[in-house]
Amino acid sequence: xxxxxxxxxxxRMGTLLVQETQSDNxxxxxxxxxRDGMQELRARDLPVAGSVEEFLRxxxxxxxxxxxxxxxxxxxxxxxxxxxxxxxxxxxxxTQEDFTQIQTLAQHCPILYASNMSxxxxxxxxxxxxxxKTLKDSDIEIVEYHHRHKKDAPSGTALTLAQVCAEARGxxxxxxxxxxxxxxxxxxxxxxxxxxxxxxxxxxxxxxVGFYLDGEYIELSHNATNRLTFVxxxxxxxxxxxxxxxxxxxxxxxx
Length: 255
Ligand code: NAD
Fold this sequence. Notes:
The protein is α/β, with parallel strands linked by helices. The chain contains 9 helices and 11 strands. It has 2 domains: 2-113 and 228-254, NAD(P)-binding Rossmann-like Domain (Rossmann fold, 3-Layer(aba) Sandwich), CATH 3.40.50.720; 119-224, Dihydrodipicolinate Reductase, domain 2 (2-Layer Sandwich). Helix content is 37%, strand content 24%. A 6-stranded parallel β-sheet has the order 2-1-3-4-5-11, sandwiched between helices. Helix 1 packs across helix 9 (228-241) and helix 4 packs parallel to helix 5 (96-105). It is elongated, with a radius of gyration of 19 Å. The structure holds nicotinamide-adenine-dinucleotide. Residues 8-14, 34-37, 65-67, 69-70, 73, 90-93, 114-117, 230 line the site of nicotinamide-adenine-dinucleotide.
């Protein structure tokens, strides 16, 4: 039995991860931690850790769906105390600088980071790269839809999809990404990649990657209808990761 710690255990994702881990025959839930809702977690008789250090000491591997601040505290604590555990990180809204810290920790333990744990999105990314490269004159516009509570925008998944399209065309996404248009902005440039966000209701997650030409267009769309998709993806990713050498992996690696 693999002893798993869930970081961010009181959140929308964390709650489902706790349930799925508890009903998994290969896994034992050995520690949980969250910034909010600790009392509720204790009331449910879960193995609540009193600190990030205790959390890490009480498990053999970690699944983290928390926040930018939470993930960074987790990564820094593991690094500073030498508590190197295989980790699946699904938190979004991280910067390049944050990834540098994750990369440093990944020299000592295997870490899998994915802004989206669904198989369907991993395949969408592969197809999008192919279309971006093949239809090189098409205008690329990505639109993502999420529930009203989502804190970061554009979604990590939309940025990943934009990144693979930019890479397929040899472009620097930082220079060509447009997120929002307003006023007299002039004609669209050939190279720009639009990444737009819609927020509302309880939409779990929808991503639409459009390739627009004169006379025709292709739109590739992925809809997540249930968070369990991400939860099962994260648990499968962890099972795959625990026997891997140290290093930073992506969801494409475990397809
Ligand atoms: P949520 O707000 O419902 O839950 C966040 C959880 O993290 C809570 O338990 C909260 O207490 C905890 N937390 C926040 N800051 C913390 C800190 N500093 N220290 C310790 N714990 C902290 O959010 P959610 O909808 O569950 O999503 C969590 C993250 O996962 C977000 O970044 C979201 O975008 C991302 N997400 C990723 C995927 C994916 O497939 N990769 C899918 C869904 C959500």
